[in-house]
Amino acid sequence: MTVIWVIYGYSLAFGEGGAFIGDLSKAFMAGISVDTLSGTIPESVFAMFQLTFAIITPALIVGAFAERMKFSAMLWFMTLWVTVVYAPVCHWVWGGGWLGDVGVLDFAGGTVVHINAGIAGLACALVLGPRKGYRETAMPPHSMVLTLVGAGMLWVGWFGFNAGSELAADGTAGMAMAVTQIAAATAALTWMFVEWAMHGKPSALGIASGAVAGLVAITPASGYVGPMGALAIGATSGLGCYVIAVHVKNALGFDDSLDAFGVHAIGGIIGALLTGVFADAALGGVGLGEGVTIGGQVAKQFIAVAATVVYDLVVSLILLKLIDLVIGLRVSEEEEAEGLDISMHDEKGYNI
Question: Which domains does the chain have, with CATH numbers?
């Protein structure tokens, strides 16, 4: 993603271009020097900050198809996907494209990152099919300790994404950081209590999943809502993502290994829509702009959600089918049984 971003990705996302996609005027970081500014900060800083979003989005997709896809197929899919899905959607919202012109609010990537990644993850899970033994053999996390370490790293790192998206050290950045913490904690508790009520016991995995759901949902809203909005968004996402990630997924039978769809797509959709509610000044937000009503802003947010879901799903399915036709997507049953660490890379995680 770094190399793609430098060669042409940044230019397609943030070049002049038109309503749909940028041009190649910034290819190979053309025109960016030590003195070049993007707004009030060095453009080199802005480009590298945006690169972190372009890196994390494909990484989220990987969680949906763990243990099934060929490494070569993954490289082809991610290269094509970031080119024809991520860069255009990023341009739509943040690069001067049509959704930005409509007035859509996405402070730190609820639509650009999380809905985008979650829908692509769903496409991957559907096309590849479930892991061998799925729903017949228990497949818990191989290390709950590392699961919680990873969740903790995500939680801390999220402050950089959300507060950093203000591109300044000011009150908006401070509030973005505050509401990020509030929403994550609220969603973690909500998931925990719902799971406790449904299954009789709370779990550390449930708390971690809820925290991530809350972090996802507050992402588009973080620069626009206050603490009351964060509580509501956290509670709604904790409940909504639990229902989709656990019960709906089990009912439909698709194998989304790390709940890319259930947590990231659903959390992103919840957050995107509720941004249009809780950005209102009467509910503690920064205000919706002159003459804009809650209903009007929610409609704009819905347009962004619908456009991203439809475009992403259709293009992702086409890319997956084309790659499957040319080189094949899925590893063999023998390679899957042996484990992809060994069969694809001739190495293993633990030499003990």
Answer: 61-134+142-345 (1.10.3430.10)
